[in-house]
Amino acid sequence: MATSISATGFKGSWGTSVAGEDYTMLAKSVPKHVRVGKPVRAQPMMKNVNEGKGVFAPIVVVTRNLIGKKRFNQLRGKAIALHSQVITEFCKSIGADAKQRQGLIRLAKKNGERLGFLA
């Protein structure tokens, strides 16, 4: 009994499928080598991923729009540097080592992202 596979469905019986007739016919119809092109990479977006997230994000966005990006980034850099100095002084006062200080600075950055200060 000859069986065939078509786009509309399987034509044949369970016995012919188990016997392997359909498999050999299918194997012959599939090309042995398939060309695969280079993966297409998307261009990286230069947008802030935290835009609009967090409690303080709207205030940060409005302030940036009012004073301009350049001045805003200068102020933000000064605020981050000042906060890092405060963390460093705190670590000195409690006797924390450099690894713990770095961990606190990273934690402050994560918290700032969550609250929307880095929007």
TrEMBL record:
InterPro entries: PGR5. One of its GO terms (biological process) is photosynthetic electron transport in photosystem I. GO terms for molecular function: electron transfer activity. It comes from the Eukaryota. GO terms for cellular component: chloroplast. This is Proton gradient regulation 5. It comes from Carpinus fangiana.
